[in-house]
């Protein structure tokens, strides 16, 4: 992998949706809080690249999700979804008792609520786009750090390349936005680290690789503190913890939530919530799948039942089911996800570093695989 077109902290500074990480290892801050840079179509408007992707055999436990309670304060899209289910149940306007999760999609009935059927499945084929910013929105970093390249690829003719600049932190932070927000998101992407990737000069060192789920606001990044209404996030990092400077490397999950604004979990044996210790070998393509579901809310209080799960090449490697993200189901749910690159915080990239992405798919408010309804 040497096709290079012309951050270890777990905190970097991004901007996000017109509302706009330093962990204990000593990194700087990265805030994702606004949406003014580049604005490709949001999920609701990008129909030409959507395809049902139901042929991928995976662990049937991927999306066994607890039912959750809707807040009475709903956006227009959420109200439409809720009223359809409530009407079928004969509950009229009793919104407070409605359950959501993998069980509820648009135009569902009592017979289909338990099958995990998503509202929609989106597949982004990079071959169909002229520029990366036709696909994602940039919130922070260097637009020149991103390019669609012909080599290497996982499939098709082009992949997305991300460059972290020598002596700097960025990369870039990008977003595929959901215009009305999601209660749950299942995402899948293939990624690879270039064969020349090194994490020297600092131990441990971390580099953000992906925004798994974000409610955009000052509480989602940059050392901000989530208060239940002002944003939250979960991000995937690469770490040299327990490794050599030239790898193999490991995964790190980093979350801004109500109980800790920069909570990081190494995906390594003996660590809480880790179900394995997958090694990342330079030059290899990996399929990363992630599932994030917001917590329930009771009488305005967040319950500790928000979920984050990671799979690598079909193996469940990380599972956490005790998170409190939000107290506001109307305006503080899942706004976006997408590629990101930020090296360090109080330290910088030792050289130009390149990561590659391909085959990004998303199941909105559901799962890729679901039971017949």
Automatic annotation (TrEMBL):
Residues 31-68 have a biased composition (Low complexity). Residues 1-72 are annotated as: Disordered. This is Uncharacterized protein. It comes from Natrialba magadii (strain ATCC 43099 / DSM 3394 / CCM 3739 / CIP 104546 / IAM 13178 / JCM 8861 / NBRC 102185 / NCIMB 2190 / MS3).
